[in-house]
Amino acid sequence: xxxxxxxxxxxxxxxxxxxxxxxxxxxxxxxxxxxxxxxxxxxxxxxxxxxxxxxxxxxxxxxxxxxxxxxxxxxxxxxxxxxxxxxxxxxxxxxxxxxxxxxxxxxxxxx
Length: 111
Description:
This protein is of the alpha+beta class.
């Protein structure tokens, strides 16, 4: 794998000092959404706790790596650029539901 171009998020989604996710939709033909438990839950699922390295962060990195592979290989999906919108569920059903709704709403606003 020869890394010609590495996906860097165009936007960091942040609310009240909490990074909720990252995305890069600019110039994309298709945007893939991802919901990952990057942090563990705290306060009974009402907020985010410490980072979950194996179960959350590594899964998010795998998605970004795969998008890089596809976007940098002209034999896979020629002429198509994939974007991403990845959200942190904090391993909480409540936060996961909020993020999935926001992902759908903001996704419908794409041109």
